[in-house]
């Protein structure tokens, strides 16, 4: 076997391309997650302690969630798809969404049972990714379409939940438009939960099917 063949058969290092532009965007998103969570907590439940801070937290969440597409687009356009990027991108998503769900449940804005199901799936799949990556010849498996759709519904639902639109209720107890708004918000989050569990099953099936082929 020649030196060139040895290089070709070598498993790519996880740190290859760590400083690629798409990965730098992912790192920035993780920083935004920390800032968002601090503001979310400080604003209090439903933003009643500081509505302005809640607005800022909501905007930061939307920006952080939106840039998920930016790093993926950059990676494909400039041919900078890396193993680290495929691993860190979904982790950044999970830090953002799971962090938001945990705080929302602490503030009684979202039920703990639903958050627990989200967390079990997300943590389980993340551990599975590391397991697959460490196996001989293993590669990080990119997110499938059900997982991407789950993230979309989840981010839209959480964005709506974070926006303190109750400040426009004009003193009414529960105006009709606000009730409809929150009905849609929770509907989107529960659809995301169904997709979350379904995509988790799809990931497990694809992972074990791939391991059997090897």
Task: Describe the 3D structure.
- The chain has 214 residues and is an all-alpha fold.
- The protein has a single domain (8-213), classed as CDP-alcohol phosphotransferase transmembrane (TM) domain (Four Helix Bundle (Hemerythrin (Met), subunit A)), CATH 1.20.120.
- 75% of the residues lie in helices and 0% in strands.
Largest sheet: none
The CATH topology assignment is Four Helix Bundle (Hemerythrin (Met), subunit A)
Q: What is the β-strand count?
A: 0
Second rung of CATH, namely the architecture: Up-down Bundle
Number of helices: 7
CATH superfamily: CDP-alcohol phosphotransferase transmembrane (TM) domain
Q: How many distinct folded domains? A: 1
**End-to-end distance:** 22 Å
State the helical fraction: over 70%
Mean pLDDT across all amino acids: 81
- At the first level of CATH, what is the class? Mainly Alpha
């Amino acid at each position: 076997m020649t030196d060139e063949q040895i290089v070709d058969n070598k498993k790519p290092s996880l740190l290859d391309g760590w400083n690629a532009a798409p990965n730098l965007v992912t790192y920035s998103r993780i920083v935004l997650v920390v800032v968002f969570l601090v503001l979310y907590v400080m604003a209090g439940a439903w933003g009643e302690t500081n509505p302005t801070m809640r607005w800022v937290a909501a905007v930061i969440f939307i920006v952080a969630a939106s840039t998920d597409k930016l790093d993926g687009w950059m990676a494909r356009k400039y041919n900078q798809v890396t193993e680290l990027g495929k691993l860190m991108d979904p982790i950044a998503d999970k830090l953002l969404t799971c962090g938001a769900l945990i705080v929302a449940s602490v503030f009684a804005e979202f039920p703990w049972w639903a958050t627990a199901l989200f967390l079990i799936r997300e943590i389980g799949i993340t551990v599975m990714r590391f397991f697959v990556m460490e196996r001989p010849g293993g590669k990080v498996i990119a997110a499938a379409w059900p997982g991407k759709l789950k993230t979309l519904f989840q981010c839209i639902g959480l964005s709506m939940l974070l926006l303190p639109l109750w400040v426009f209720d004009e003193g009414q107890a529960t105006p009709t438009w606000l009730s409809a708004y929150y009905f849609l918000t929770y509907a989107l989050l529960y659809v995301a939960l169904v997709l979350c569990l379904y995509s988790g099953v799809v990931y497990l099936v694809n992972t074990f099917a791939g391991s059997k082929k090897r």
